[in-house]
Every structure is written in structure tokens, then in C-alpha cells.
């Protein structure tokens, strides 16, 4: 697996600052940018302001910072998960229809669990047979778009990805969690490491959702929380509800129509 950050938006911190500041200032965006360019607003103040805003959960300005990644030699199993992220992300993926793979070039991805189970040799034997059949199909005139039907989820693929920072936060929320499948978790960790090299100020917010800069607690099942190595340093949501029931003004209960009616009455709906 290879993950490389190709590019990111120029002046990303300044763009974030201007986007956030536009929402909270009587100045026009052009006036804000003039202060940035003339350094009337210093770098330290920009970083501090962005950090304060990120703590509020104000996410829309984060869409204005964009990253481009080149990702190669990941499995089709991973790609089926990755393309489920739709908002704030754009994919270009290697085609199995237009790319005719050579038999000796299909380097299948093999999970380490197969080796631990003592089945690595069987895995390699099967993928070798699939490669040979795929090559024979192409040689016999079967179109690549039909020959690909025999290729498994282990077949390798490549991506060119454009993703904004808001969606990158969401991806890390889900895919850095230890419950995520190992391959996509590794890929997202490498994406985070690439961003950290060029933009450490915002990379600290790229965490699993239980991170101190995200929700700060685990909202998965209690059973999964107990299995997680972070369970010792991150509370489970049930603990927070227990504390609320113990010290809150009333017990936690399901919302009823009475609560919804109260809101509608207050808002004169």
C-alpha cells in the first residue's frame, strides 16, 4: 500500500481563518484577506483563532481546505468501503474494464490473518489459478469488462482522491476506530500522517471519534468498548448517562411528543 499527499490548498490556515472570520466579522472577506496579506494578522493569532473555532463544532469553513491523494495497491475490498464516503470527496479509481492486467502483475492483497491461520499457501494457490484463468479469458477474446468477473475482492486497485478537511475529519472518526477493517484503517492512518507533515496544526484534529479533539467518548456497544485498547483511557457513553442520572436534575428518558410540542409552541410553528 502506498499513500502520498500530492497537493493541498495553498495557504490552508489563512483560508480557514478568512472563512471563519467572515462569519463573525463586520469586515468584508476582501478586507480580511488584506490584513492577512499585509501581516496585520499574525500567524500565531490565526492558529489560535482556528483552534478556538474548531472547538465549537463550526464545520462548514473546513470544506474550503482541500487535499489530493495518490493511493495505490489497496484491495477492492477496501475500495467498496471507501467509496461509501460521498460528501466532500471525489474519487478516480483504476478501471478493471479499461485496464487489462497481466497474469504476473496481479499482486493480490492478502490479509495477515490468512498467514496466522496457516492458510497463506492456499490463498496464493487460489489467486494464482484466478490470474491464470483471467489471462486465458483475455487471450480467448473475452473482453476485459467480462474477464474481470472472476477477479476477487483481493484484486489490487489505485485511487486519485480529492477530499476536503471536513470530510477527512468524518473519515478519521470512523476509519481510525479499532473496529474499522484493518486495511482501510491503515490507509487512513497514512493519509493522516501525510497531512501531519504539511499541516500539523489541523492534523491534531484527525482522530478516531473518541479522541479528545472529537467526541471524547465511545458511542459503540459496551462489548466493543471493552475489547478496545483505548477503553481504558476513553469513557463509554453509558458511563456518561450514569453520571447524568446520578447528578442531573432528572433521569434520562426517551423524548415524548410533549417535548416536541413544547419546542413547536416556543417557535410558534
Brief description of this entry?
By secondary structure, this protein is an alpha+beta fold.
Task: Describe the protein.
The protein has 269 residues and is an alpha+beta fold. It has 3 domains: 2-71 and 159-203, Gyrase A, domain 2, CATH 3.30.1360; 97-154, no CATH class; 222-266, no CATH class. It has 13 helices and 4 strands. A 4-stranded antiparallel beta sheet has the order 1-2-4-3. It is globular. It starts with a strand and ends with a helix. The model has no long low-confidence stretch (mean pLDDT 90).
Q: Which features characterize this protein?
A:
single chain, 269 residues, alpha+beta, Gyrase A, domain 2, 3 domains, four-stranded antiparallel β-sheet, 13 helices, 4 strands, globular
Shape: globular
Largest β-sheet summary: 4 strands, antiparallel
Query: Which CATH-level-2 architecture of the largest domain?
Result: 2-Layer Sandwich
Helix content: 40-55%
Which CATH class of the largest domain? Alpha Beta
Helix/sheet category: alpha+beta
Work out the radius of gyration.
24 Å
How many strands appear in the DSSP assignment? 4
Please report the number of helical segments.
13
Instruction: List segments where confidence is low: pLDDT < 50 over at least 5 consecutive residues.
Output: none
How many distinct folded domains? Answer: 3
Placed side by side, the strands forming the largest sheet appear as 1-2-4-3
Task: List the quaternary state of the chains.
Answer: single chain
How many angstroms separate the termini? 54 Å
| SS strand fraction | 5-15%
Amino acid at each position: 500500500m502506498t499513500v502520498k499527499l500530492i497537493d493541498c490548498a495553498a495557504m490552508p490556515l489563512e483560508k480557514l481563518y478568512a472563512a471563519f472570520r467572515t462569519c463573525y466579522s463586520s469586515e468584508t472577506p476582501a478586507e480580511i484577506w488584506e490584513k492577512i496579506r499585509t501581516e496585520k494578522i499574525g500567524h500565531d493569532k490565526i492558529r489560535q483563532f482556528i483552534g478556538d473555532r474548531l472547538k465549537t463544532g463550526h464545520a462548514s469553513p473546513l470544506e474550503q481546505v482541500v487535499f489530493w491523494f495518490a493511493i495505490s495497491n489497496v484491495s477492492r475490498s477496501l475500495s467498496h468501503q471507501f467509496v461509501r464516503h460521498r460528501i466532500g470527496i471525489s474519487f478516480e479509481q483504476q478501471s478493471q474494464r479499461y485496464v487489462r492486467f497481466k497474469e504476473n502483475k496481479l499482486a493480490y492483497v492478502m490479509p495477515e490473518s490468512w498467514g496466522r491461520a496457516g492458510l497463506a499457501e492456499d490463498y496464493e494457490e487460489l489467486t494464482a489459478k484466478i490470474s491464470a484463468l483471467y489471462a486465458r479469458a483475455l487471450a480467448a477474446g473475452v473482453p476485459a469488462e467480462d474477464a474481470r468477473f472472476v477477479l476477487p475482492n483481493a484484486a489490487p486497485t489505485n485511487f486519485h482522491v480529492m477530499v476536503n478537511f471536513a470530510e477527512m475529519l468524518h473519515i478519521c472518526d470512523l476509519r481510525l476506530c479499532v473496529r474499522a477493517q484493518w486495511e482501510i484503517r491503515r490507509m487512513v492512518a497514512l493519509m493522516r500522517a501525510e497531512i501531519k507533515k504539511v499541516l500539523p496544526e489541523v492534523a491534531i484534529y484527525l482522530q478516531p471519534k473518541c479522541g479528545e479533539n472529537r467526541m471524547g467518548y465511545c458511542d459503540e456497544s459496551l462489548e466493543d468498548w471493552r475489547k478496545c485498547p483505548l477503553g481504558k483511557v476513553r469513557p463509554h457513553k453509558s458511563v456518561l448517562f450514569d453520571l447524568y442520572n446520578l447528578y442531573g436534575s432528572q433521569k434520562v428518558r426517551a423524548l415524548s411528543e410533549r417535548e416536541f410540542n413544547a419546542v413547536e409552541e416556543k417557535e410558534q410553528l
